[in-house]
Amino acid sequence: MNIVFGPVPSRRLGRSLGINNIPPKHCSYSCLYCQVGKTSQTEIAPRVFFQPEKIVEAVKDRLSRLEPDERVDYLTFVPDGEPTLDRNLATSIKLLRELNINIAVISNASLIWRDDVREALKLADWVSLKIDSVDADCWRRINRPDPALRLQTILPAIQSFADGFDGFLATETMLLEAINTADEQINPLGDYLEQLQPDKAYLAIPTRPTAEAGMAAPDAERLNAIYQTIKARLANVELLTGYEGNAFAASGDPVEDLLAITAVHPMRRDAVQTLLAKSQSDWSIVANLVRKNQLRELQYQGKTYYLRAYRPKK
Ligand code: SF4
């Protein structure tokens, strides 16, 4: 198995060199939507998979073979399993520091109640923690955690980590139609995120084949309503709908800009009008995108919003 892959373009991390510090599929969860398939046996005891020196050597080797104009913005621990199951995660991060590249870890947060796991994650510059639900029954249904795990120990530990972390904290919530998308799920999630105050909360939908069949994204109306509910409590919320373009580098092309921004943030009609005015364009652009089904027009609390059309996976 390759320990290092990429660099791949990532909207969240720029050009990210992936580090696979866990062989597939060692995980504490067996999420319904996992792209790597089912976890045959969940596990929660961190152990050694690769020696940190081997990981560093693999990263250096890959960096040495990059084209001169290829840059790497982040070294990202994003294995086909849970990265904090690696007992040597802290040592690997410390050793990778000599490369002077930012370090990110994408974790499911299930082991964050362990002091050693929180300490290891604190060494990273950018950490993403999975929070699909704050309701224990729903969490069990979606994430199918190891039987020894308890959501009521994970949620306060996430808060405690956030309180002592100096880096960039992101949360990621996968939205599965009819499982965690109702108001009774979203309102308490919003309350928890409001308290947590991550630097950014990502709301994702399934865009690739899932471990279990039948996992679908909410429809665009519902996705917009969820976004607005969380956005009312938290400044920084973004959608992850499978588009990796950069919403924040205005190209000057109104069509491109509109599609890039609405893939991440549903835009209110007045914001769209402002964007069009900047490029001296008229509303026919929007009408055309709606007609071609590239942009969805949605009503929410008496206002009209626009969201880039996505194909909910069935
Ligand atoms: S936590 Fe990640 S790797 Fe583990 S089952 Fe869920 S999606 Fe898959």
Automatic annotation (TrEMBL):
<keyword id="KW-0479">Metal-binding</keyword>
<dbReference type="InterPro" id="IPR007197">
    <property type="entry name" value="rSAM"/>
</dbReference>
<dbReference type="GO" id="GO:0046872">
    <property type="term" value="F:metal ion binding"/>
</dbReference>
<dbReference type="Pfam" id="PF04055">
    <property type="entry name" value="Radical_SAM"/>
</dbReference>
<keyword id="KW-0004">4Fe-4S</keyword>
<dbReference type="InterPro" id="IPR040084">
    <property type="entry name" value="GTPase_Obg"/>
</dbReference>
<dbReference type="GO" id="GO:0003824">
    <property type="term" value="F:catalytic activity"/>
</dbReference>
<dbReference type="InterPro" id="IPR013785">
    <property type="entry name" value="Aldolase_TIM"/>
</dbReference>
<keyword id="KW-0411">Iron-sulfur</keyword>
<dbReference type="InterPro" id="IPR058240">
    <property type="entry name" value="rSAM_sf"/>
</dbReference>
<dbReference type="GO" id="GO:0051539">
    <property type="term" value="F:4 iron, 4 sulfur cluster binding"/>
</dbReference>
<protein>
    <submittedName>
        <fullName>Radical SAM protein</fullName>
    </submittedName>
</protein>
<feature type="domain" description="Radical SAM core">
    <location>
        <begin position="9"/>
        <end position="244"/>
    </location>
</feature>
<keyword id="KW-0408">Iron</keyword>
<keyword id="KW-0949">S-adenosyl-L-methionine</keyword>
